[in-house]
């Protein structure tokens, strides 16, 4: 389970809250990651011949064939966990969240020891749909620490701190990242400053995919946090990066202005966030110029991630600048932005993941 108080891939620093705040792990990608091939294999044991053929097609990147086979398997055995999980995954890829949930719900009663995992996947789908009541019901009902964390975050997002606290205290002893995340939430909620305590709700909104709402409400809260916590500048930078990556330039600039001295070894991140904010502002010239400075300051992977994020921000209104930012870059992030630009050939060329590459015809 990802520590969603820091929900981004990036440099693995000692403090998980220091990771790069750009390459957004969206709700969709987080949910699909749990529904994808590895987790599919963990839920699917044996299965029908058709389901096995579907998995084989999926592993080859033959998406249409996989979808057809999973639907065939589900029609033949609606309570089959194999067929339901596979069909749900394929329906989710197509944006059919109601259909994905229906497939999983049909297999839940007969899932036995796998029922908790089915409920967790249904909770993730409910999260994508923005149905917080269902997230609470299914997350708690899963009996799994990850599901209960989702339920607690939904309670926080609804302003129900006492209910969230009770759930979080019950999973804080988990030895994995879920327990660590629960402890981080509890520490925020226990802060005597009500503004700092309120940051727990904003973080929950972020974790549940209501990211625009989160960044638009965070400024006063994270600045209050910074007044009493050593990692305050890092938290401000984290949220500035999140705001910039979502195109919320004004919020990003106000947060960046609040950082008088960059956190240790993070001057490149401040500059990179400024580059992304310039793109979000629509100032392509300053964006490109800033990234020329970032190139000599940043680690190679950080530089690539920041440029890809800036390209993503500007792709819809300035495709020429987005292409300029992507020039020479490789990786799945670049591939996804090329897809936004309608260039499937460039996306296939840039993709690193073999599964994605097959999907793109590379």
Largest sheet, described in full?
A: none
Report the oligomer: single chain
Overall pLDDT confidence? 87
Count of β-strands: 0
| Percent of residues in β-strands | under 5%
Low-confidence runs of at least 5 consecutive residues? 1-39
Report the total helices.
23
Distance between the termini: 30 Å
Q: Classify the secondary structure makeup into a structural class.
A: mainly alpha
Work out the helicity level.
Answer: over 70%
Overall, the morphology is: flat
Element pattern in H and E: HHHHHHHHHHHHHHHHHHHHHHH
Query: What does the radius of gyration come to?
Result: 21 Å
Describe the protein in words:
By secondary structure, this protein is an all-alpha fold. The protein is 71% helix and 0% strand. It is built from 23 helices and no strands. The longest helix has 15 residues. The protein is flat and about 60 Å long. The two termini are 30 Å apart.
Summarize the SSE layout with pairings.
Layout: H1 27-35, H2 37-43, H3 49-59, H4 63-76, H5 81-93, H6 97-108, H7 115-129, H8 132-142, H9 145-157, H10 161-171, H11 177-189, H12 194-207, H13 211-217, H14 219-228, H15 232-245, H16 249-257, H17 267-281, H18 284-297, H19 300-314, H20 319-326, H21 332-340, H22 344-350, H23 354-359
Helix pairs in contact: 1-7, 3-4, 4-5, 5-6, 6-7, 7-8, 8-9, 9-10, 9-12, 10-11, 11-12, 12-13, 12-14, 13-15, 14-15, 15-16, 15-17, 16-17, 17-18, 17-19, 18-19, 19-20, 19-21, 21-22
């Amino acid at each position: 389970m990802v520590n969603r108080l820091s929900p981004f891939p990036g440099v693995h620093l000692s403090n998980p809250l220091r990771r790069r705040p750009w390459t957004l792990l969206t709700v969709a990608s987080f949910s699909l990651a749990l529904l994808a091939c590895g987790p599919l294999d963990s839920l699917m044991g044996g299965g029908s011949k058709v389901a096995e053929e579907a998995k084989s097609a999926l592993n080859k990147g033959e998406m249409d064939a996989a979808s057809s086979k999973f639907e065939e398997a589900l029609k033949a055995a609606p309570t089959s966990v194999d067929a339901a999980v596979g069909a749900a995954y394929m329906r989710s890829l197509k944006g059919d969240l109601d259909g994905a949930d229906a497939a999983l719900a049909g297999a839940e009663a007969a899932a036995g020891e796998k029922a908790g995992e089915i409920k967790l996947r249904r909770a993730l789908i409910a999260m994508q749909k923005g149905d917080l009541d269902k997230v609470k019901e299914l997350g708690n009902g899963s009996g799994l620490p990850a599901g209960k964390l989702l339920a607690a975050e939904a309670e926080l997002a609804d302003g129900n701190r006492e209910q969230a606290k009770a759930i979080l205290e019950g999973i804080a002893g988990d030895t994995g990242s879920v327990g660590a995340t629960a402890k981080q939430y509890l520490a925020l909620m226990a802060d005597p400053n009500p503004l700092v305590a309120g940051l727990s709700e904003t973080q929950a909104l972020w974790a549940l995919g209501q990211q625009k709402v989160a960044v638009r409400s965070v400024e006063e809260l994270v600045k209050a946090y910074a007044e009493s916590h050593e990692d305050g500048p890092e938290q401000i930078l984290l949220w500035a990066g999140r705001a910039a990556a979502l195109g919320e330039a004004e919020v990003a600039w106000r947060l960046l202005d609040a950082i008088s001295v960059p956190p240790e070894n993070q001057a490149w991140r401040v500059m990179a966030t400024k580059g992304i904010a310039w793109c979000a502002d629509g100032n392509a010239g300053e964006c490109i110029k800033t990234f020329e400075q970032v190139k000599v300051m940043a680690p190679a992977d950080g530089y690539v991630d920041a440029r890809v994020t800036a390209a993503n921000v500007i792709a819809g209104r300035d495709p020429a600048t987005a292409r300029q930012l992507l020039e020479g870059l490789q990786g799945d992030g670049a591939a996804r932005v090329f897809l936004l630009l309608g260039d499937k050939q460039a996306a296939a060329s840039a993709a690193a993941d073999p599964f994605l590459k097959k999907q793109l015809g590379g």
